[in-house]
Amino acid sequence: MEAQQVIDKILADAKAEAEKIKKQADEARAAEQAKLDEQLKEYNKQTNILAEKAAEDKKLHLLAAARMDIAKQLLAEKRKIIDDVFDQAHTQLQNLPDDQYTALMTKLMLEAVETGDEEIIIGKNEKRIDQKFVKQINRELGPGFKGNLRLANERHNLTGGFILRRSKIKNNVSLDILLARARKELEIQLAKELFA
């Protein structure tokens, strides 16, 4: 065999071996790329799942915060309305015509009297609860009561209503207290609505 033939054979064998190695390398690279593509696809899938869950959690958090803000605003508006209503009620009670005011005070006093010998403390500017009013209440107390109600010499800062005092026991039936109790009951109902 001639030298050229030997060289050609060596070159052909080397080329065949190189093609074989290149083919194996291409196959290995393709297999590795397919494996990487599959891993990337799985990572993307997991990332999307996590992102969707995070987005849903964020959305739920934002919705809960928005609901709470709306509830707070609603409560603030309800409180404002309640403030206005109770301010108006207080003013209307103070400005009742004399006959309606004394009728209301008569009813409240008859319900509040325990023994009939209490002192009646009135407001500094009270003019409608007087000796005549007290005599009428004493007449209406009926059996079981002493009928010895009397006006106290002292006066308090009441804007309407009265305080019945027997010894150290006081029963506050002032308009401020009556409205405060009604307001507290209403606020309890509002709180139940808000946090239900």
Portion in strands = 5-15%
- Helix tally equals 4
Sequence stretches where pLDDT stays below 50 over 5 or more residues: none
Which H/E pattern describes the elements? HHEHEEEH
Average pLDDT for all residues: 88
Number of strands: 4
Biggest sheet: strand arrangement: 2-1-3-4
The Cα radius of gyration reads: 46 Å
Overall geometric form: rod-shaped
Oligomerization category of the chains in this entry: single chain
Summed up, the domain count is 2
Largest β-sheet summary: 4 strands, mixed
Helix content: over 70%
Structural class: alpha+beta
Measured distance between first and last alpha carbons: 102 Å
Outline the structure in words.
This protein has 196 residues and is α+β, with helices and mostly antiparallel strands. It folds into two domains: 1-95; 98-189, hypothetical protein PF0899 fold (2-Layer Sandwich). 70% of the residues lie in helices and 12% in strands. The protein has four helices and four strands; from the N terminus they run ααβαβββα. It has helices spanning 3-94, 98-112, 131-140, 175-195, and strands at 119-123, 150-156, 161-166, 169-174. It has a four-stranded mixed sheet. Helix 1 packs antiparallel against helix 4. The longest helix is centred in the N-terminal third of the chain and has 92 residues, at 3-94. The chain is rod-shaped and about 150 Å long. The protein starts with a helix and ends with a helix. The model has no long low-confidence stretch (mean pLDDT 88).
